[in-house]
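Table S4 entry, 3-hydroxyisobutyrate dehydrogenase.
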Amino acid sequence: MSDIHIRTEGRAGRITLARPKALNALTYEMCLATERALDLWREDPAIDLVLIDAEGERAFCAGGDIAEMYRTGKAGDFEYGRRFWRDEYRLNAKLAEYPKPIVSFLHGFTMGGGVGLGGHCSHRIVCDSTRISMPECGIGFVPDVGGSFLLARAPGRLGEYLGLTAARMGPGDAIHAGFADHYITEIEWRTLKTLLCETGDASVVAGAALPVPDSPLAAQQTQIDALFAGETARDIVNSLRHDGTPFAAQALEAMARCAPLSLAVTVGMIHRLRGPSLTIRKALELEYRVSHRIMEHGDFLEGIRAAIIDKDKSPRWHYADGDVPAVAVSKMLMPLGDDKLDFREKSMKIGFIGLGNMGAPMAANLVRAGHEVKGFDVAGLTAEGVTPAASARAAAEGADVVVTMLPNGTILRAVADDVIPVMRPGAILLDCSTVDVDSARAVAHQADEASLGALDAPVSGGVGGAAAGTLTFMVGGSKAAFEAARPLFDVMGQKAVHCGPSGNGQAAKICNNMILGVTMIATCEAFALADKLGLSRQAMFDVVSTSSGSSWSMNTYCPAPGIGPKTPADNDYKPGFAADLMLKDLRLSQQAADSVDADTPMGEAAMELYRRFVEQEDGKGRDFSAMLPRFESRGRG
């Protein structure tokens, strides 16, 4: 992406904003790209810290790119802005809570969204050119992106002063107010960045730091505390009007340019947040209550019009006389109910290839969770809510994640050859098929060569689990890719286990299903024996399900109809997990056993029994638990 440069250098993950002509204003795509990078680097052992900086001399980041918010909002589409804010605020929380050091270099104008990006990092560096501010009230908004968190923690009443006047802080003020940590002259930044990348040691920042410059705000702290201590914005205005000092006059002049409703809400936010229970998430959740409503019920669109679109500098504010009723503030800050900011992962663009009995409900669940899914199936199958694609390549182009659910390793390799060349670097190829370990590892190597993440993630739970979103995923691949895909696992399943490097997901599935095949045969044999011994099936179930012979095949997937929980046995053995698929998995287990010289006599015997059942008897197209009627009709001969 030309607007942001993301890469690794030495021991560091590096993010550089690259819109200097636009003062590095933050776009929606830049937010999403930053979050993707942080997710990938979170568990990457090769990355010890993250470094965030920006191109150009004038600004680190002068705010968010709000032109699209204005366009969509004026058209009555408030959801675009709400989605932007939800995703941006989640990024702000991740920056504040990140488990590795993040070093931000805050030169020039650092305003609004720039504070959200660089102001919550563990190591915040400023220089002589730094000018930090929260100017949102001037466009009919409120300090957001976690700005209310910083304002509520600022010494004394600095939070109210900075939030209401948009006063710009130089390096000394920024450190005094808690918006920055270290002062280092900009001429030394190149050397420091090189050292950080080479060593991965964030402690070198403190070693390079210089004495903090004087802070004019610190010198004015007593006066600020007295003048900005009012309970409401109106109280603060009255205090300033009665003071008569040049400082008070300047503050009044700055506030006069702001939306009265925004000023009142900002004071209410800071007062609610200030205290020992404050967290970044609490502040962002409160901010989002305002963001969610501000275009429809506040002055945000009018503020953008006057400042940026028409540039007439003559906004027509609500409550222009400055008399904002308390109920108006309360309405902006009241809880949102189901629309509450919950920090869930962003909507992803997903390509889904293979929309059969398992793939279709999995893809439909992703759509219902709010993801954008394009799907392709060679048989022309589709799924509810999924946008049909003309080919596998068309489904994969532009996707954040490509999910495959395919019959075998040969087809997986062919699909990988087709889609990997059109996938964007950093995207993830998530294969949920059950295939041989060698194919899984070959595709993972191919994806790695193309700078893609790759996960082999076969599933357990059958068609019912796919429809209900209760599958279990056994996942092989890098920890970073696993964490990036975790939100999708949470939608499609109830559990995802990271089993190690590529191929280990398939290894876990193969071993699990070998156990399942063996235990189902044993369970069916035991029921058939109980029948011939005159033991009722119910008594058999009641004893075994609570005794040492209990197993998943008995307790959850009982092969005897009318006994225990409802299973395919109660539906004439129509397949939940087909015997054909069990045969496939058992063959994979024996192929794997041969490749590593493992002795698996029970697995081999189970494979042979299912081979005869499917290929020579009536097992094809029936559930794998239909072994029970098979054994019922057979003797020992």
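The domain at 349-502 is CATH 3.40.50.720 (Rossmann fold).
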